[in-house]
């Protein structure tokens, strides 16, 4: 063989070796392994990772995690750091974090998200048997590849924190098919996503799963200066947090409705509260309207399925329009594909120190997934009635706006026609009942 042929062959062998070394199809690693981060990051997208011997705090026996690597950021996703208004923004690529989703082995009703960053640090969360855990690096908050992964169970106080408020009720925000109620809109100005007959919806969903066709929802994320202040101005920490938050959203939505949640755009305001266009407002419905008006006027060039605002302001909770996906493609200047989540804490992350507890493991996850659920077409579970001919609502954790049924509280501990106690869904208000967020820690969109 000619010399140049040998060089080409050697180059090909090296390239194939490098490719195989960079993407392992399957790996198993003990939770305490010093090489945990390196092993996990070597797993290719769509490949499986089994984590063995993980001791979830408070559980008697160690558990295994069945995980799959997935993407949180859209191809070509953009992170924008905006200083003072009018200043030139800085753009950067998303961090090269490896994300994994899955469940506790033997418990398909559980959900787990693990993130492994380029520096070897680990984050994530697990929901299992009506309890929640923050996941962190066993060695603490430092960098490097050693240490494995450990867990910390959320405090009972966290499970009782913040009675959830969705501004949709007070503001009269309704699904798009109920035009004439709630916020003013012209039917001709909206891309059609009207109410779909439940039987047809079930058939469509069944066909979707049979075909195994995964959908992608590309979410554009806006923030305010109050949000970045939760991280003391540390943009890297805020970006990592957002990746974990939306990564967990993907765990739920990919499992429940066969849809991957991907971040296509993120903007952080870095020069304080006077730098962003978001003055303080009294409630989430007002914040949602302002967000929509600003983005319709200024952000039409961002292609997205929907846009969502992550806010650190004390606005009581969140608000979203119902059933509005992809409207920006049909009407850039007057669409309603928006949601808003307020009072975010930025603290479901855990520093790995076994002497400290994770704070508010559930709140941030719940409010964002709940408001996204409205964009995807869901009302509150206590407003769903008439399913299968039964006039009663799915649950009675709050008074229904549409079903006309007595509240019959507390529905989380007494039977209702379709939901006989236990955990409520993400679209419920069951966390308002005794037990707080432990009533819905299953974090499911549907029954």
From TrEMBL:
Region forming the signal peptide: 1-23
One term of GO molecular function: metal ion binding
Pfam families per the UniProt record, alphabetical: Reprolysin_5 (PF13688)
Residues annotated as domain Peptidase M12B: 215-413
GO biological process: membrane protein ectodomain proteolysis
Ranges for region Disordered: 175-196
Classification via InterPro entries: MetalloPept_cat_dom_sf, Peptidase_M12B
Keyword Ribonucleoprotein: no
Keywords: Metal-binding, Signal, Zinc
Residues annotated to bind Zn(2+): 370, 374, 380
Active site, UniProt feature: 371
Name of the protein in question: Peptidase M12B domain-containing protein
Source organism: Chlorella vulgaris (Green alga)
